[in-house]
Amino acid sequence: MFTKAILRIPGSNFADGLTTVELGTPHLDEVLAQHAHYCDALRECGLELTILAPDLRHPDSTFVEDAAILTPQVAILTRPGAASRLGEVAAIRPTVENFYSRTLAIDPPGTVDGGDICEAEDHFFIGISQRTNREGARQLAAYLNSLGYTASTIDIRSMTSILHLKSGISYIGDDTLVVMEEMAENSQFNSEFARFNLIRVSSAESYAANCVRVNDRVLIAEGFPHLRDELIARGFNPLVLNMSEFQKMDGGLSCLSLRF
Ligand code: CIR
Fold it and tell me: Active site at which residues (predicted)?
């Protein structure tokens, strides 16, 4: 169960952030409206929100998930792999420290983006990506092991269609992973996923593979009816949100909040 979440309102320069997709320029009024709906959805799931003011120094800072990894016992401040995002960690640190008496940090030359970290019960999948390097993964795994979790790495660098590990997989509780087809088919990853039930997401719906279990709901992006129906068929309760403006900046549902 989560009780709280941290978010940051997108800044007026949101469109100046990083992106690898060519879906057009986000419209600020729609960005803000979609963000407000996302906040409402988390409240509907029972969370108490801490909503931070826009940070114009960091256009990508609404994607708060990348700056920290929150476990029940400790917070691990990350070290984002994109230079333009490094300062987001210092910016969010005081807020995280309001809730956690113990924080750990990833040190140079390690880099970790929270979007590469997928927690599935007592196990953490750590994506090695353009943003998270092996040294960052090593430091993080050592912290997690000391806290009693297991960890394994999944190298997604050959998968050019996704930015972060969690762009392609999500753990939605009940021993179930939502996995984009390309990953589910990859023989390198099969053994990693063997102990879980898999919901495969076709390539036509791959953006929807980034979904988020929040208490008794699963937040999913609007416009992906096959995944929505599959979730319902398996007894999950999806809550659908329009994510079009965040998708333009490579952002998914999970990256807009830190839930704990
Ligand atoms: C970036 O490229 O860093 C941002 N425009 C998007 C980050 C999305 N974060 C995530 O999926 N965890």
Answer: 164 (proton donor), 255 (nucleophile)
